[in-house]
UniProtKB/TrEMBL annotation:
It is found in: Cell membrane; Cytoplasm; Nucleus. Its cofactor is Fe(2+); Ni(2+). Belongs to the acireductone dioxygenase (ARD) family. Binds either 1 Fe or Ni cation per monomer. Iron-binding promotes an acireductone dioxygenase reaction producing 2-keto-4-methylthiobutyrate, while nickel-binding promotes an acireductone dioxygenase reaction producing 3-(methylsulfanyl)propanoate. Catalyzes 2 different reactions between oxygen and the acireductone 1,2-dihydroxy-3-keto-5-methylthiopentene (DHK-MTPene) depending upon the metal bound in the active site. Fe-containing acireductone dioxygenase (Fe-ARD) produces formate and 2-keto-4-methylthiobutyrate (KMTB), the alpha-ketoacid precursor of methionine in the methionine recycle pathway. Ni-containing acireductone dioxygenase (Ni-ARD) produces methylthiopropionate, carbon monoxide and formate, and does not lie on the methionine recycle pathway. Pathway: Amino-acid biosynthesis; L-methionine biosynthesis via salvage pathway; L-methionine from S-methyl-5-thio-alpha-D-ribose 1-phosphate: step 5/6. Ni(2+) binds at H89, H91, E95, H134. This is Acireductone dioxygenase. It comes from the Eukaryota. It catalyses: 1,2-dihydroxy-5-(methylsulfanyl)pent-1-en-3-one + O2 = 3-(methylsulfanyl)propanoate + CO + formate + 2 H(+); 1,2-dihydroxy-5-(methylsulfanyl)pent-1-en-3-one + O2 = 4-methylsulfanyl-2-oxobutanoate + formate + 2 H(+). It holds the Pfam family ARD. GO terms for molecular function: acireductone dioxygenase (Ni2+-requiring) activity; acireductone dioxygenase [iron(II)-requiring] activity; iron ion binding; nickel cation binding. The gene is ADI1_2. It comes from Halocaridina rubra (Hawaiian red shrimp).
């Protein structure tokens, strides 16, 4: 089961857990209600044949997938790219990641602009809604292999904060106010 918690304000290494003292965990229900983030746990051994991923893809209209590996030896320009992933940004489309190997953290802003850290591991499928402020980093293991899913051709254009005037952000705020 995925874990999520409110982050401390430390500027220490981004790959650390950054728990508050004492830790303040966030349930999946609260995460969904407050941020619109969706989560599934899939079997990494049988996802290609058990139909669960295909159902999610069909239900949500995902038609394109690729796989990314993020580690010092797998990703060109690693240091520059991992820093770019950790810059707070939004997208105009959902961001969908299915973890095939390794682990990492997605950080999302709640309705009070506080950071919630979501630890993802093998088998976790996470959907971040369009317009949510977020960022990604590896954890101390320094490796993740993830499937990226898209509706149509892949679009991975980050719009760094502030992006409050963008339609995707405005629509996200309206969904947040009215309930996801």
């Amino acid at each position: 089961m995925v874990l999520a918690w409110y982050m401390d304000d430390s500027t220490d290494d981004q790959r650390l857990k950054h728990h508050m003292t004492p830790p303040q965990y966030v349930s999946l229900a609260t995460l969904k209600e407050n941020t619109g983030v969706l989560y599934w746990k899939l079997n990494p051994e049988s996802y290609e044949t058990d139909g669960q991923l295909e159902k999610i893809k069909s239900d949500r209209g995902y038609t394109y997938t690729d796989v990314i590996q993020v580690s010092p030896d797998k990703l060109p320009n690693y240091e520059t790219t991992i820093k770019r992933f950790f810059e707070e940004h939004i997208h105009t489309d959902e961001e969908i990641r299915f973890v095939l190997e390794g682990s990492g953290y997605f950080d999302v802003r709640d309705s009070h602009d506080k950071w919630i850290r979501i630890a993802v591991d093998v088998g976790d499928l996470l959907i971040l809604p369009a317009g949510i402020y977020h960022r990604f980093t590896l954890d101390s293991k320094n490796y993740i292999k993830a499937m990226r899913l898209f509706i149509g051709e892949p679009v991975w254009t980050p719009f760094n904060r502030p992006a409050d005037d963008m339609d995707a952000r405005k629509q996200y705020i309206e969904h947040q106010k009215s309930g996801f």
